[in-house]
Amino acid sequence: MIFIRYENWRSYLRYYPVTCLLLAANIVMFIVLTLNGGSRNGLTLLRFGAMSDIEPFAGQSWRLFTAMFLHNGFDHLFSNSFAILVFAPPLERLLGWWRYALVYLGSGLVGNLISMGVYQFSSVPHISVGASGAVYGVYGAFLYIALLQRHLMDESSRKTLYSLLIIGVIYSVLVPKINLAAHFGGLVGGFFIYGLIVRLLKRR
């Protein structure tokens, strides 16, 4: 079962440096938001890099990146950080640190880009933050493995992945204010970015 963590904290830091950096960035930015007006304050989120279709923030492409490290409340931070902590490490070990970073960040950017493309047609002002697109990109990479590289994943891990995706879809549809477009975009992005990496940037 690849999604069960057996490492102590020292081994975790040594084996998964990018995952640790991502977790640290999320936590640090949450503290920064909390000390500057609160992580649920829309103006604070916009000031520190949230995506939005509100002028003058609309169309600022750098926000596609910065929004990945901002979270709207502790519950939002906790759910995404827990997913990164538990489910991302096997992908970092499999790909190596920089290929893994490419999947994570690339998926997050694709998810955010699709999200802004969808919500620009909405009549309701939109502000979006969170690592969910990147997290679903990790799931998308694992979905590629489960479907097309079955020898790399055991049956229990496949069942766990499928269960996560089913629960994630139901949660994204039923819970208000969830960015379904970012989740779906990240999942698709992770699937195809991983596929390109294993074909074009094979690990020696």
Automatic annotation (TrEMBL):
UniProt entry keywords in alphabetical sequence: Hydrolase, Membrane, Protease, Transmembrane, Transmembrane helix
InterPro entries: Peptidase_S54_rhomboid_dom, Rhomboid-like_sf, Rhomboid_protease_S54
Gene Ontology biological process: proteolysis
Keyword Membrane included in the entry's annotation: yes
Gene Ontology MF term list: peptidase activity
EC number: 3.4.21.-
Gene3D superfamilies assigned: Rhomboid-like (1.20.1540.10)
Annotated localization: Membrane
UniProt keyword Cytoplasm present: no
Pfam families: Rhomboid
Protein name: Rhomboid family intramembrane serine protease
Family: Belongs to the peptidase S54 family.
Transmembrane segments: 12-35, 69-88, 100-121, 127-148, 160-178, 184-201
Organism: Paenibacillus phoenicis
Segments forming a coiled coil: none
PANTHER family per record: PRESENILIN-ASSOCIATED RHOMBOID-LIKE PROTEIN, MITOCHONDRIAL, RHOMBOID PROTEASE
Membrane association type: Multi-pass membrane protein
Domain Peptidase S54 rhomboid: 59-197
